[in-house]
Write a structure and sequence with these properties.
9-stranded mixed beta sheet; single chain; 8 helices; elongated; 9 strands; alpha+beta
């Protein structure tokens, strides 16, 4: 099974690798990740070039033999066994850190976010899946069936104001809402899509005195009070009684079992009617 390779991207990264990084910078990155522990045949720069150029020439499922031939072109005197031993968890950590640095190249100018000055940071999070060679199924589980048995999910959280990146590599089959929330600084704003919806995360964001904007799932009940005997309201019925493009804002509680709210905050539901279709947004705001 052959996997598509964006050759122009690989060539661009390979060229910029040598022009932007000094060899010692990449070796420092290798040492910080644990990949380089002493002077060795394979340097940080050499290993990065091997992985990137190997993918450029032979594809993402390049064999050990093909990578060994590429290593010799780069002047590395390695046996097949010696090269194979380099592909460790530390090597993975090194390439992850390198990728995060390369990804940062795409944010070269300060973004104009004057309307968001009230927030200490604006975080945007999303994920993408890629198929991998089946031989990697023990490391990264794929969907199988018509797809590969190996697949990887790349979860990215981008800080728009500070140009920061957080990366997380997981099985392709891992749901977005099982992604770790991590640390959220006070007064920051987190933007995620519906796949990340989890009330426990919303509660943690609130405890951090931060903000979020999120849609809520279709099976999430909405209540006007915390009274356990009260029945949920029907947003679809409400929207049908509204005019096209009319917007109503409702302070409410959410959750099929629990009523998510506290004394300082409440859930604010915005319902907009647009010619028979209903759009729903749930967000947390301090009163």
């Amino acid at each position: 099974m052959q996997f598509p390779v964006l050759e122009d991207k690989f060539k661009d990264i390979s060229m910029r690798l040598e022009t932007i990084f000094r060899k010692e910078e990449l070796n420092d990155l290798g040492r910080a990740s644990g990949f380089i522990r002493r002077q060795r045949i394979v340097s940080g720069l050499g290993f990065a070039q091997l992985c990137i150029q190997g993918a450029e020439e032979s594809g993402l499922n390049a064999s050990l033999t093909q990578l060994l031939a590429q290593a010799r072109k780069l002047g590395m005197a390695l046996s097949g066994e010696g090269l194979n031993e380099r592909f460790t968890a530390d090597a993975e950590s090194f390439m992850e850190k390198l990728f995060a640095t390369i990804a940062g190249w795409h944010i070269e100018e300060e973004l104009k976010l004057n309307t968001l000055d009230m927030f200490s940071e604006v975080l945007v999070e999303d994920s993408s899946n890629w198929q991998l060679p089946p031989s990697l199924k023990a490391r990264f589980k794929g969907f199988g069936g018509g797809a590969s048995q190996a697949g990887i999910k790349l979860n990215v959280r981008l800080g728009l104001k500070g140009a920061t990146w957080q990366l997380c590599f997981r099985n392709a089959t891992a749901p977005d809402n099982t992604s770790p929330l991590g640390s959220i600084s006070a007064r920051s704003l987190l933007l995620r899509d519906l796949g990340y919806f989890k009330i426990d995360d919303l509660r943690s964001i609130e405890k951090s005195k931060a903000f979020y904007v999120s849609r809520f799932k279709y099976d999430t009940n909405v209540y006007l009070s915390a009274d356990s005997t009260e029945k949920p309201i029907d947003l679809l019925t409400i929207s049908k009684k509204m005019k096209v493009n009319e917007i109503r804002q409702i302070w409410c509680y959410i959750g099929r079992v629990e009523r998510f709210s506290n004394k300082a905050c409440a859930a604010k539901s915005t319902v907009q009617s647009s010619g028979g279709q209903t759009q729903k947004i749930e967000r947390r705001q301090t009163k």
